Structures are given as C-alpha cells and as structure tokens.
Protein 1
Amino acid sequence: MSENRWLYRASLYELLAQSFLYTTETLAEALTSGEYAEALSELMALNAIAVPGISDENGTVDGSKVGEGDADRSTVEKALLPYEGRASDEVLHELRRDYTRVFIGSRDPLVSPYGGSWYALERGTKPLLFVGKESLAVERFLRRCGVVQPEGTNEPLDHIASELEFLQYLCLLKAGATIAPETADIGPTDYASFYNDHFRWFAQRFATGVITECRTPFFRAAAQVLLALPEEAGD
C-alpha cells in the first residue's frame, strides 16, 4: 500500500479516536461548524469506506429535516446535520451527558469502552480493568512497539480510543511519517496482527452497543463508521 494510503488510514483512526474520548470543546465546535462532518466524510471517501443510509422515509435524520440543498451530502454529513449552527456549549453538554451515561455509568457502563471487558464477557468471566487477560495482552503488545502509559494518566490501554491511536501510530510508521523509539521491536506484520487479533472483534461489538444505547446522533454516526471498517487488515 502507498505511503498516502497509510496516511489516510492514520488520519481516519485519529478522528475516530477523538470521537470516543470524553468530548472536548474543540470537537463540539467542529460539529456545530460542520468541519467534523466534512473531515470524516472526506476521510471515509479516501479510505473507501461507506455506511448505509440513516435517513428515514420522511427525509429526516434523527428528527431533523434534510433539505434539498443537502441531497449531495454524504450519509455521515446528513447524520450530523442536527448539530450545525447550534451553540457549541449546548452541544458539548449534550454529548458529555450521553458519554457519561453510556460509557461511564453510575456503576457499570451500558457499553464498555475497554476491549478486555468484552473478551471477559465472551468467556463468561468477570471483567477486570488493567489485569484481565486481554488488557494485559494489549499492554504487552503496545509496550513492545514502544508505546507506554503516559506519565500522570491511569487509563487502561485497551480503551477503544487508545487502540485507535495505536493503529494510527502503526500506520504512520508504515508511511514513514514517524520513527519508533530505539527500544521498540516492531515487525512488518504488527499492524495486521493487532488489528485482526485484538481490535476488530472488540470494535464491532463496541460499535453495535453504541448504536443501540447512545441517544445522540454523533456517537451513533461515529460508531457506524467504526463498524464499516474492513473485516480484516492486511499488510
């Protein structure tokens, strides 16, 4: 694959990672200006990724009328129309409320953002952050490739956003756009290995849960793109 193709893929992973982190003011502003929808739509086209139509039979997307001038917009842009022109602080509050309700919860999240939790449930065992079998496997993989927990943070590395950022890093390495630390041990098949063995199965189940549980069109649209990523990655 060409260097540009790896860069396109890295940019898509970066934007998706930002989408599943706790919503920032910058992201809310990009949604209300339409910049986020435009960027995501462009990256989907560059990566040959398409999602099924979201509009209902009345020509609305999550209750918002899609006008004639929006006919040429991508599916994702139409799904995010409800945010354009709104006050960014209002959108920020709305997204953070939904994020907390779904991904954090008062006790257990409706949709866990941690891969280890999904693998534990599949095996019928209790999910354990940091010390679960999958969580430790992901941490070892990232550490071998030169990625460690940032100082001052306490977030498991199998968070959906962390795994997307790691895939971004591996794509940048393949594009020659960054250099791995001298201590890293990275092979030519590591991108495909991580994607196929650790990321894809978890991402599909996470995305399906988000589409089911989230009330905001933003998270559902981002999850549909996540669900539309290739079934298998090659080198």
Protein 2
Amino acid sequence: MSEAALPGVSTVVARRRGRLLRNSGLVLGGLIVGLVTLVAIFGPWLAPHDPFAIDLSRRLVPPAWMEGGDPGNPLGADQLGRDYLSRLIYGARISMVIGVLTVITSGLIGTTLGVLGGYFGGRVDDAVVFATTARLSIPVVLVALTVVGLMGSSFTLVILVLGLLLWDRFAVVARSTTMQLRNLDYVAAAWCAGCSRTAILLREILPNIASHLAVVATLEMALAILLEAALSFLGLGVPAPLPSWGLMIAEAKEYMFFSPWVIMVPGIALFVLVLGINLLGDGLRDMLGTDLSR
C-alpha cells in the first residue's frame, strides 16, 4: 500500500469509529449483551452460592438493601431459600444458550432455503416461498405449547422447537438479498471464471449477505429468549429446578403481593437483556443501512 493511500484508510477508519460512538443505542446494547455474556460464561465463578441449594430457614429473605436483608444474599432468597443472585446468574446462562442455539438452528434452515430460492429461482423459489408462507401461517406460541405439552418439557426440546419455528425471517431476508446479488458483475465474473454454483454461493453470495443476517439474528435471539421465558412461565419450558428467568417469575407469582421483589428481579433482568439485544440489532441495522447507501 502506498503512503498516499494510508491517510485515506485512516480517515475511513476514523469516520466509522466516530459513527459507531455516535450510535448510542448500538453502544448501550453492545455493553448490555457483552456484560450478560460475560456473566453467563463465568457464572460458576461469579455465583456466591449453589443455585440449587435449598435452605428453608432462609426462605424469602429480602434483598440486602431492604429491612431484614442479609449481605450474604444480596438479592435475597426464593421460596425455598435458594440464593436469588446465584439463580439469576445461572439463568443468564440458560437464556443466552437458548438464544444462541436457537438462532444457529433457525439461521441454518432459513438461510439455506432463502439462498437457494433467491439464487436458482423458478420452481426452487416457488417451493421456498410456499414453505415460508406456510410457516408464517402457523402460530409459533400455539405450536410450541402443543409440541412441548405433548412431548414433555426439556432443555433440548425447547431449543429444537424454537429453532424449527423461527427460521422464516432468515429465509425472507436471505432470499431477497440473494436475488439482488445474483445478477451483479462479480457473481457473473465468478461464473465465467469456471466457479461452481456451490463455490459462488459460499464465496460470493453468503459473505455479502452476512451483515443483513446478523441483524436478523439479534432480533430472533431476543424473540427466542422471550418465548422460552413464556413457555417456562407456563410450566412447559425449561424444567425445574433449572433457574430459567421465566420459571423464576412463574414460581414467584404466588408471593408477588407479599414479596414483590421475587418477581421484579428476574423480570427486570429479562427486560434489560431483551432491550439490550434489540438496541444492538437496531444499531447494527442503522450502521449497515448507512454503509450500504454510500
């Protein structure tokens, strides 16, 4: 690279860094998601107590800042005397794992269908459109409740059900962006150079639609976490005694009028995580939209 080109590169980098810092939603969302991710990864070392240890002598101990609270249980204890902070930390692991694995499963299905339909067109595209339309006509919550209710709740089943039901947005976005890219010059040049269709899809199409799919992934991750919490709240999600935030809210509803903090703590945690993911997705969309317009 010549010296004359270096100032231009540094200017572009500085411009993008400034644009990133000005996008407060992206920065705040990234901080929230990053913090929850670190808590989920290092949960066993951060949790002050065993989240499954029952101590009935400490049941419904209030948080440390409330009257009767104990610094040994900073967020109090639940109806079985289990440390709430430890269960909240382990609940972050469950929410993040379910969100990430659901996005991976649904992303693989939806992206594959969308890219194939958008690139090949014709009957392949008709089949993809039909499958996507059929999926959109199915109520996600109702089907998830039915399947989990019939087969029994389990951690793996929740991920599979959500992954098989949340692929439609990936398919729609992948199909539309692939249709825009398939007639561009660099794709035609790769075809003329003798590249196979598989190579074109993997090397030319997928890298150029990855940014759009990343935005979809953040939105689907937030939706998967909310759906898992809803299923757990109804008793059809992650089975007890796993500390799912939705299950913690369900177990606390009987005590919400006498000890409101038992439902507020996991509820606020769930709200903050979903808010952070949505802010991150909106910020990525704004950043990518600005870049694509240049």
Protein 3
Amino acid sequence: MLQNSSFEEGYYHWHDVGELAIPNRWAFWYADESQQMLPGQSQPFRRPETVVWRKSDASERDRAAFFLHGNYIWKCFGAWKPIHVRLWQTVNLQAGTKYELKMPVFPDLVETYLPDGSKRFAGDAWAGEARLIVLNGLQPLYSSGWQNANQMPFGQWSTLTTQFTPTTISVSCVLELRAKWGIPNNGFFVDKISLNAMSGQHRVWLPLITR
C-alpha cells in the first residue's frame, strides 16, 4: 500500500541539495542547528547526508550486511555530528480496518573502526534511537516511543512493527531517527518497508519489536 516501499523506483534531491537523496514518493525532514539540544548533547544537530545506495556499488561485505531486498537501500548518516531525521509517506486507507506497518532499520552507530575493517559499535544504548509514528491526518494515532540498542541492537537489522486502525482516510506513516553524540559514524540503513491490511475490524494498539 506504500509507493516505492523498497526504494527501487528512483529518488530526488530534497530542496535540490545534492547530499540529500530521498526515495521518490517519500517526504523528508532533518533537524539543524536551530533545533533545541537534548540533555547531555554536546553539540547541535547538523545536516546529515542521505543516499539511495545501489547494490552493485557496494562491497561484498556490505551487500551481505545491508541489502534486505532488491537493488537499493536508503542510507542516512553523519560523521562526527549528531543527526535527527524523519522519513514519511501519506496514504489513503479505509477507516475502521486494521493495518500492520513494518519498517526495518539497521543502526550503524560506530564508535571505532578497527584495522581489520571491522567496527566497534557504540557502547551507549542511547547513542542511536528510532521510533514509528502513525498520524491520522495531523493527529497522532500511534507512537512506538524511542527504541534504543536495548530493543534495536546496533550492527544488525531490527524491524519496528505496529498494528493500528485509522479513524480517517488520510494516514501518515513516519520513521524518525536520531543520534545525539558526535561519534565517528552516526548511520542508519532502511529497506523493505511494508503496510498491509489485516483481517478483523478491532482496534489494536500494540507496539512490537522483532528481529
């Protein structure tokens, strides 16, 4: 029910910024220096870089680690700087029908790059966070709350999943990502998002984290 859900159908440059490649049909936002800093944050949020990465351009190691489906994934990252972004799509659904939304995320929060090419991921569970938000029009219908490394381990894929029942036709499915410490790499990969209707008409508010 989402368009370009696995990012195979091209991309555009957000506000014509070359370093911000956004999958077609998706909207985007990022926090800049004007955003209020979070408790303990030592430097302000800055503009990230984003790419729609082609599988043939990746190494064999990266292909095995990062590509869930097809030939493209979306990558958002910032070296030595905090980042905070939202990626979302607005769709028309049937009010009163239950849906399931799944958004796979790979948090690539790197504290140290080792000589053999491997990585040491951030030891602070709150170094990187993600959450799902579903909006009924402009009103929040569901939020997963921020998930950190305790629910979404760094260095592997996790799938943020929710079931919800809209009360209006227009619904926005939002993925929000943030990394608030200036470590060597604050990175996130996203791929193979899905939104499907489920059987039954009962409203469900059930946040799940699966891997």
Protein 4
Amino acid sequence: MKFILTDIEGTTTSISFVHDELFPYSKERMSEFLKQNYEKPEVIKCIDQVKDTVLNEQNKMMTNIEVSEQLIEWINLDRKHPALKELQGLIWEKGYESGEIKGHVYEDVMPALKKWKDNGITLAIYSSGSVKAQKLLFQYSTKGNLLSFFSHQFDTAVGNKREVSSYKKIATELNCLASDILFLSDIKEELDAAREAGMKTIQLVRDDQVIIGNHPQAKSFSTI
C-alpha cells in the first residue's frame, strides 16, 4: 500500500467534537464575523456565492443580513456549501489561534500516522470540511501539530464523498492507481464509492452508531 487516505469526522476525530463544539462556535460568531469583515475579498466572494445559490434555488435576491441568516440555517442543516465551509474555516481559525479550540483526535491516531509515514506510506485527508478547516484541526490538535504527517488534503472541491468520480479524481491527483490507495472512513456509502473507484477500504467502527457496510472493519487505527 502506497497511500492511506483518511476521513476525519468519525474516523480520526469524534463526531461530537464537530457537531457539539465546532458548529456552535461558528454559529454563534457568524453574524458578527460578517459585519466585521464584509469588505475582505475572501468574505465578499463567499457572500456572493450564497446569494447566487439562493437566487438559483429560490429565485430570491438576498441582503447581506439575510445572507447571515441563511448561513446559520445551513449550519443547522449541516449543508456542505463551499461558502459556508470557507467562512467557518475563517471563524475557526481565530478560535484555534486563540486556544479556545483544540482539534480532537483519538488516542490511537498519532502513533498510527507516525508508524505509517515511517514505513514510507504517503498520508492524505479527504473530508467534507474545507482544506483550511482540516489543516487547522490537525495543526492545533489535542496531540500537538500533526499537520506534517499529511502530504495532501482534499475536500468537496473534488466532488461529493459518496460519488465514485471523486475518488477517481483523487487517484489522478495523487498520480497513482486507485488500487494503491487505502481509504479509511466510518461512512458505508463513502467506502462503497471508493471501492467502486478501485480503492482498498476499511470501515472505522468506533461506536454502535455506525451503519455497518460490507467492508473490512477496525475499531481503531492501532488495529489496521
């Protein structure tokens, strides 16, 4: 195996950390963040993306205040919208840098990453969270800065995590055969898509909430 591609939520990191800490943190600060940063190019771009999406989906023009309300609604719905993910990353960045947030990783993750990298395996991430959010989580993790373990990060810019084409694109980006990649995730449908693309798969089953698929299973990274 030349590459290990890992999901984050439910795989390296507790689902509760994302839903009970990260999401509320960005939700509470979204309106104020937009007010303070309306003129920044990266924020303007995100606001325009939200307005375009709502115009296309609802045939409705939005004010900037309505954009803020829409983003909060999307947080509640856990919508994987690129503008929301980008803005959440910017908000979380301040939280990580101030020490208010520490990225959760399971105890077994760091030793496994070190072992795999020492054995010459290239490590990469594929998550629905933005690349920026991925980097922040591992840079400011509860186990220190783990970012150097990963050579590549992928988010939904390559496609939906339940689509076969996304995993084919990742193999192309990594310049390897899909069969050279082992994909780790807790989500059955993601693993199904990766396997159909030609990747090896292992399902992380860290609790009894996981919907079991027809894939090899592991309860932790240490058993892989």
